[in-house]
Specification:
Elements: E1 2-6, E2 9-15, E3 25-30, H1 39-48, H2 50-63, E4 71-75, E5 83-88, H3 99-116, E6 121-124, H4 136-153, E7 160-165, H5 168-181
Parallel strand pairs: 2-7, 3-5, 3-6, 6-7
Antiparallel strand pairs: 1-2, 4-5
Helix pairs in contact: 3-4, 4-5
């Protein structure tokens, strides 16, 4: 695990299972339907139980689909985390479809929602790098730069931001990029 203090916020990068995180909120790499799916999305819905899906249904009824780059929040259901922030990353289409900006917005809007709800600790997966095929090196750089930028714009407002990577390989990629940026 890597741990660095950035303007009063602890940033951690680790290998793990995001469904077991004890941060106040975890982020779900959701699809626009908010109805669950594969990968991180499916794992969070399975571990969190039916309450999360019910709350997602309510959001869908009130607000419709969640567009890429946007974020919504539900309770954590049966998870250790009190909240799940569902954000939709971009599907990789070769880099010419504004994917970088949309991915950055997914992280930024999740962090803004955390602040709005007075959440102090949040854990992210690597958004869009699974089924959505976003190249992980590029995604890691965007994620980490967005997090650093957000902390600098909101110093000390979040106590902890954690990147929880599913594989050791992903952890190595994020770690190398983190060392370049800090």
């Amino acid at each position: 695990m890597i741990e660095t203090l950035v303007d009063g916020t602890k940033v951690r990068i680790a290998v793990g299972d995001i469904t077991k995180e004890e941060t106040e909120a975890i982020v779900n790499a959701a699809n626009s339907s908010l109805m669950g799916g594969g990968g991180v999305d499916g794992a969070i819905h399975r571990a969190g139980g039916p309450q999360i899906l019910e709350e997602c249904r309510e959001i869908r009824l009130q607000e419709g689909m969640c567009p890429p780059g946007q974020a919504v929040i539900t309770s954590g259901g049966n998870l250790k985390a009190k909240y799940v922030i569902h954000t939709v990353g971009p599907i990789w289409r070769g880099g010419n479809g504004d994917e970088d900006r949309v991915l950055s917005e997914a992280y930024r809007n999740s962090l803004h929602l955390a602040l709005k709800k007075k959440i102090k600790s949040i854990a992210f997966p690597s958004i869009s790098t699974g089924a959505y095929r976003f190249p992980i090196e590029r995604a890691a750089r965007i994620a980490l730069l967005t997090i650093i930028e957000f902390i600098k714009d909101h110093p000390g407002e979040l106590q902890e931001i954690k990147m929880v990577l599913y594989t050791e390989k992903d952890f190595q990629i994020y770690s190398e990029i983190w060392r370049e940026l800090i």
